[in-house]
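Predict the 3D structure for this chain.
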Amino acid sequence: MSLSPRSFTFVADLVRREAAIVLESGKEYLVEARLQPLARAAGFADLDAYVTHLQSGAGYPGRAAVVEALTTNETSWFRDREPFDVLASHVLPDLLARNAARRKITVWSAACSSGQEAYTIAMLLAEHVVPRGWQVEIFATDIAPSMVARTRAGSYSQLEIGRGLPAPLMVKHFQRQGTQWQVSDQLRSMVRTQVMNLAAPFPPMPVFDLVFLRNVLIYFDQPTKRSVLSRVRQVMSPDGYLFLGGAETTLGIDDTWHRQPVGRLTLNRPRPPATPAPVPPRTVPGLVRPTRQEAI
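Done. Predicted structure below.
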């Protein structure tokens, strides 16, 4: 199956409008690969005919499946490793010291895919925070309802478990159920899930100490990146930490973030608002104010 330029333009516009994901020219192969299963399931042997169907009123309900198919759901346990090492060695000790009175840590795993990131964070908090008697809340959100459902279920295949999960943690936090591995009730109780589009206005949210927004901004254009970063900052604690992907930065996009290097990793933190300069007393030209002694 191949896709005409006109059909590609329609799909690219649809995905950009609904999810702010930019599909530039040259991504036709990706769109074709992702749409072929959907076209076959809908009974179309030709991709252009399938796209024409999507453009009609009868095909409108199928557009959500197209958007979901074209979101990237690449993930693994402890992905890229270093962010989670820095979380355990640097960030959590700092938050434990700062939040001693509140004794609670709130985390957002944005664009959580099938949940490996959220449960990786849960495992680290179960090791370093929960034993101290602290509360933990992890919000896991994604634009794809199927990914949110998978995160909520917390069930993974042997192949998925084998992608980065250390054996001791698998034994401690997972149980075998047939051909699947089930996340423990302890970890699942720490994670709340919700369908959410980062490019749309945020729903009411708590104040977060940690936000993991990794490998998401790379799919957005500059105005969308700026908008997302601005709204993320509004739901973060002044002492919070923002984790981005290795190819992502706030530099040159949003200067209200302070970039803090830790080893090879750069953490992003809300920059305190600038203190306004004192306003000098207003004077009228030609008017000399009397001194206190002259006034008396």
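The chain has twelve helices and ten strands.
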